[in-house]
């Protein structure tokens, strides 16, 4: 009888412990950066940091497609700053691509890396995910990193901080790492 009671007490304790709500994860590291994208339009070669490399119109790689830019692919090598000033000293580069992949709204798919080379941070942070551009904030996955961010993973919240026609946009990137090595 004593063994049954001990087993019952153990099972009740286990059930109560596993039924309690989980504590939400807290980030182990947080970082806010801005990246500035100036798309090449045929007239701004000196300032352009991105270019259309595939377009539905074929040879016209200086103008985005009319129907939600569907089918355009752009590559970028954008400056990253600690604030939203385009002329601030860069702390690194955002390098990658975006694909406009939806016909009925402005949405793109991002694959890019922040290459940081400053006195505060050395290394890379890699991101991937969909970017529903018209939403105020959207999340993409942080899939890994190197250097100061070796094997880090988490979520980056993107917010459009500025937008000028189809030539310039600036994103505020709030990075929350949940796995830090």
Automatic annotation (TrEMBL):
The keyword Signal applies. Transmembrane segments: none annotated. Dirigent proteins impart stereoselectivity on the phenoxy radical-coupling reaction, yielding optically active lignans from two molecules of coniferyl alcohol in the biosynthesis of lignans, flavonolignans, and alkaloids and thus plays a central role in plant secondary metabolism. It comes from the Eukaryota. The keyword Cell cycle does not apply. Its main location: secreted. GO terms for biological process: phenylpropanoid biosynthetic process. It is found in: Secreted, Extracellular space, Apoplast. Homodimer. Keywords: Apoplast, Secreted, Signal. This is Dirigent protein. GO terms for cellular component: apoplast. Residues 1-19 form the signal peptide. InterPro entries: Allene_oxi_cyc_Dirigent, Dirigent. PANTHER family: DIRIGENT PROTEIN (PTHR46442). Belongs to the plant dirigent protein family.
């Amino acid at each position: 009888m004593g063994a049954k009671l001990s087993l019952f007490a153990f099972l009740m304790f286990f059930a109560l412990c596993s039924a309690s709500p989980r504590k939400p994860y807290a980030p182990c590291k947080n970082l806010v950066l801005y990246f500035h994208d100036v798309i090449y339009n045929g007239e701004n070669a000196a300032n352009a940091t991105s270019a259309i490399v595939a377009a539905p119109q074929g040879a016209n790689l200086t103008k985005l497609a009319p129907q939600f830019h569907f089918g355009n692919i752009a590559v970028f090598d954008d400056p990253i700053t600690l604030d939203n000033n385009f002329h601030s000293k860069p702390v690194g580069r955002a390098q990658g691509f975006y694909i406009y992949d939806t016909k009925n709204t402005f949405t793109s798919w991002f694959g890019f890396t922040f290459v940081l080379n400053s006195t505060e941070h050395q290394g890379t942070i890699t991101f991937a995910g969909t970017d529903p551009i018209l939403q105020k904030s959207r999340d993409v996955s942080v899939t890994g990193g190197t250097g100061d961010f070796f094997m880090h993973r988490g979520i980056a919240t993107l917010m459009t901080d500025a937008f000028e026609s189809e030539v310039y946009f600036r994103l505020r990137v709030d990075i929350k790492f949940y796995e830090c090595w």
